[in-house]
Input
Amino acid sequence: FSAFVQEVADAAASADSTTVVHDIPKFVSTAKNDDGKPLSESLNDAILAIRENLQVDSVTLLPSSSSSSSNSLLAGYVHGRASPTATCGTSASLVEVE
Output
């Protein structure tokens, strides 16, 4: 599951969109992960692996609030990670430093 979430985040970051992905079904069917696999296939794999009904409901990009985004950094912290390489946990926060 956490690998699929990371794939969605990576695909959204490289998508041609401003801040919100408006057509979620189209995004999931056309976007690909780093290996070139469609997100729809990754979603099906995640559903089969954890035996839960998963759906991508919304995707929102968080642009920098700085007018010169090259001088800012958006970083995240995840508390209670499932594993050292996992991007999911019990709580999380994002911080922008300029």
In short: The chain has a mean pLDDT of 81.
